[in-house]
Each structure stands twice: as structure tokens, then as C-alpha cells.
Design brief:
- Keywords: Sigma factor, Transcription, Transcription regulation.
- It holds the Pfam family Sigma70_r4_2.
- InterPro entries: RNA_pol_sigma-70-like, RNA_pol_sigma-70_dom, RNA_pol_sigma70_r2, RNA_pol_sigma70_r4_t2, RNA_pol_sigma_r2, RNA_pol_sigma_r3/r4-like, WH-like_DNA-bd_sf.
- This is RNA polymerase sigma factor.
- There is one protein chain.
- This protein is mainly alpha-helical.
- The chain has helices spanning 4-42, 47-65, 70-96, 126-130, 135-143, 147-158, 163-170, 174-193.
- The protein has two domains: 10-99; 126-199, Winged helix-like DNA-binding domain superfamily/Winged helix DNA-binding domain (Arc Repressor Mutant, subunit A).
- The protein is 68% helix and 0% strand.
- It starts with a helix and ends in an 11-residue tail after the last helix.
């Protein structure tokens, strides 16, 4: 009996698996740092929870989408990560509101869309660094924003996703993304203005 075809299929499968794992390792090395910053801000500095969410998102990505291209992984990963974050936030909300088990838990108080918000160009977060504001100061200011504003800003400004893709990741309308992003930029400018007079605040 000729076993060559089966052996060939096994070898091909092994090569594909190895390639996917290698791609995932490279992808993780590139994305982990930014994803952790995002999750630490969203979980109020709980590094352990942030690590768990990021690791669970990578595991789910590999299980469900190992055959996808690396370019496709970016929005898929952040969609999975957003879903895991929202699940965690719901559990935390229910834990703090024990009588909310049978009613919908509201996670955000800034979901009302602003009308006629211009889809602002994505700023480079390092523009703030050029204005003598440190990375730590930017991260601290981001952490003070509501979670959805954090997500909109970091997905657009740090990851470079457009409004449409960001809306798909955040599972909301493009109008909501524009609103969250607009408010995030305003909030960051206000929070950081006192550190640099070029941003509209006082240097004193």
C-alpha cells in the first residue's frame, strides 16, 4: 500500500501548523505591549487582569483564526479582546450590583452620540511627546478617560484603524466611534494642557 500521500499530507499539516505558530509568536511580540497598555487603562491598572485578557484573546485568535493572514489578525484580535473586556466589565458590574442579575447592566455613561461630529484625522500620539509631554503622562491621561473613549482613541491613534474598522471592533456605530474619539481628544488636550503652553494651557 502506498502511504506517500498520507505522509505528505501529514508533513504539510505540520509545516502549516509550525508556520501559523511562528506567525502568531511574531504577532504577539508586536502587539502585546500596546494591547497591555490598553487593557491596563481599561481595568484601572490591574496588570494581572490585563495580562489574562490579552493572553485569552491570543488563545482564541489562534484557535479560531490560525489560517487567516497576519493582516487579518489585527482587527480580529482587537475584536476578540474588546469582547473579553466587555465580558469582564459586565461581571465586575454585576459583582458590585448584586441585585442587577435580571436587568441589563449599563457599562458606559457617555454613549450618547454627538450630532455632526467630523471624522477627525488620526493624531500621532507621539505628537504629544514632541511637545514635551512624556509617555507616562499620556498614559495616565488616557487612563482617566471613560473606557469607550480609551478604546476609540487607542484603536485609532495607536493602532491606526479607520472609523469603520474601529466601529466593527467596538461593536458600535461609526457615529459612536466619532463621538468617543472626539471626546477622547478633547479630554486628553484638557488633561495635558497644563503641562505645556503649546497645547492651550498654562505653563504655570
Amino acid at each position: 500500500m502506498d502511504l506517500a500521500p498520507k505522509q505528505s499530507e501529514t508533513q504539510n499539516s505540520s509545516v502549516l501548523k509550525s508556520t501559523a505558530e511562528s506567525r502568531l509568536k511574531n504577532f504577539m511580540n508586536e502587539v502585546t505591549g500596546r494591547a497591555l497598555v490598553m487593557m491596563e487603562s481599561a481595568t484601572h491598572g490591574q496588570h494581572g487582569i490585563a495580562m489574562d485578557l490579552v493572553q485569552e484573546a491570543f488563545i482564541s485568535l489562534h484557535k479560531a483564526y490560525a489560517d487567516k493572514s497576519t493582516d487579518e489578525w489585527y482587527p480580529l484580535f482587537y475584536t476578540i479582546l474588546n469582547n473579553k473586556l466587555q465580558d469582564w466589565r459586565r461581571k465586575e458590574a454585576r459583582r458590585s450590583q448584586p441585585f442587577s442579575l435580571f436587568r441589563k447592566v449599563s457599562l458606559d455613561d457617555d454613549d450618547v452620540e454627538l450630532q455632526d461630529v467630523v471624522d477627525e484625522s488620526t493624531p500621532n500620539p507621539f505628537d504629544f511627546l514632541d511637545q514635551a509631554v512624556t509617555a507616562d503622562e499620556i498614559q495616565n491621561a488616557i487612563a482617566e478617560l471613560p473606557v469607550r473613549q480609551q478604546q476609540a482613541f487607542m484603536l485609532r491613534a495607536w493602532e491606526g484603524f479607520d472609523t469603520h474598522t474601529t466601529a466593527e471592533i467596538m461593536n458600535c456605530s461609526e457615529g459612536s466611534v466619532k463621538t468617543h474619539y472626539h471626546r477622547a481628544i478633547q479630554g486628553l488636550r484638557t488633561a495635558l494642557a497644563h503641562l505645556n503652553p503649546h497645547m492651550g494651557g498654562s505653563s504655570e
